[in-house]
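Minutes, project check-in
Item: structure for the 287-residue chain
Input as provided by the requester:
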Amino acid sequence: MPRAASVIIPAHNEESVIRQCLDTVVSQDGIDEYEVLVVCNGCSDRTAEIVASDYPTVRLLESPVASKVAALNLGDVEATFFPKFFVDADVTLSDGCIKTMIDAMAETGLPVAAPTMRFDTSKASWMAGQFHRIWQRSPYFTSGNLVGAGFYGISKDARARFDEFPDLLADDMFIPMSFDPHERLSVKGATFTPALPRRVRDLVRIEIRRHTAVAQFHDEFPEALDRASDEAFAQGHGWLADELASPSDWAGVAIYAGVKVWARLAGHLRLSRDGTSEWTQDRSTRG
């Protein structure tokens, strides 16, 4: 069977990162039928211009609405092939990542898949680096049951199980939590690297958005919690106690816990005041 795939990249004012993303996407090999769609939504910078001028094989779609969900739905409608891979504009892919994902999904027959996330903290401050070091030890990463934060793929059968992407901040939470844990595949031979926040103040802003997004998801889809109740999406932090066994980790645990508590309190305040949260970009990786 020929290998086919569509890659959909929603992009809102991503001129500083879109090249590094697309360079790794368009260079993927071993795929017979392959299309890449960048959906510029509400862009006021040079993102669309860069895509149009520097990447002739990429299909550019533009929407005046600054909405990631709207961009996902537009790209989904316009995309041709399955599996469909939804990729954030600030991530980079390993060589052969898409081919490996296609083969793994075909071999297992599983409807939803994500590659393994790699961490690059070389540009992060010491405190932000400590946060990321502890974070990657959380069950969200160690459970081995699909992270999908910034990159996930769905089969044709998976796509038939929902109407469209709902208006949620946690779009990358909607897909994995719409499927049972045994239906989700973490592909070990494929990796991607997200752009991590480099400063603590940027971490706090992103964590506030993450907390309010999770709260919104819980309100909108409470039934999904029973379907997908597994370690990857557990909200508890009991695992942190194990990290205290080594004194060298105490500083990292304190920073991690402090950021999480700060973000949760601020998130509750924002929800009680505004009832929602706007999309928040990490500006430290886009400056």
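Outcome recorded: DSSP finds twelve helices and eight strands in the chain.
No further action items on this chain.
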